[in-house]
Amino acid sequence: MDTIRTAEYARALYAAHGDKAEAEAAQKEQHSKALGNRDEAQSWQAVRRAIRQMRGANQS
Fold it and tell me: Could you list the mean pLDDT of each consecutive 10-residue stretch along the chain, which spans 60 residues?
C-alpha cells in the first residue's frame, strides 16, 4: 500500500473509531499474520503507525 492510501485508511479508521482506531488496526494486523498474509499485515502495521502519529504523544 502506498503512503497516500495508508494515510487515507488511517484517517478513515480514526474518524470511525476514535482512540480505539490503533487497537483496531493492530487487531487486523494480527489477523492478517495469522492467515499468513504478510503484505496485508505490513500494510496494517503502517496504518497503525500513521494513526499513532495522528494521535500524538501519550500524556500522563
Answer: 91 94 96 97 96 75
Q: How many CB atoms lie within 10 A of CB 31?
A: 13
CB-facing half-sphere around the CA of 37: CA atoms within 13 A: 11
The ranges assigned to domains in the chain are: 3-58
The per-residue pLDDT for 1 is: 73
* HEC readout, 4-36: HHHHHHHHHHHHHHHHHHHHHHHHHHHHHHHCC
